Amino acid sequence: MAPLALTVMGVLPVLIWLCARWRPAVLEGRVSAFLGDISYAVYLLHIPLSPLLQKPLRLAFSGTDLLSVLLKAGVFGLVLIIASSLSYRLLEVPARRWLVQRYGRRPVARAAATAV
What we know:
The protein is mainly α. The chain is built from 4 helices and no strands. Helix 2 (about 30-60) crosses helix 3.
């Protein structure tokens, strides 16, 4: 089995299970809360940003060595986090506020009952 496949199919699921089971303190901090808040924007923006940044990153870090790859990934991650944070603050939060003002909050128990 290829090392990447072994990592994706074996190591990552075990790591996720361990984190869910023992809930390390790092998962309950402010950074984790921030990443949780912007996670939907990260999901939406990573695909459109990838082709936009591919050529500039390739020109800035032209090598194929490990350092160049890590620098490309780091810059992409930083741009993605900044763009996702802006999207969360400027789009998601105002939209959520507008929806609550327009339709009000539904009780959780009622929403769960109607979902079934």
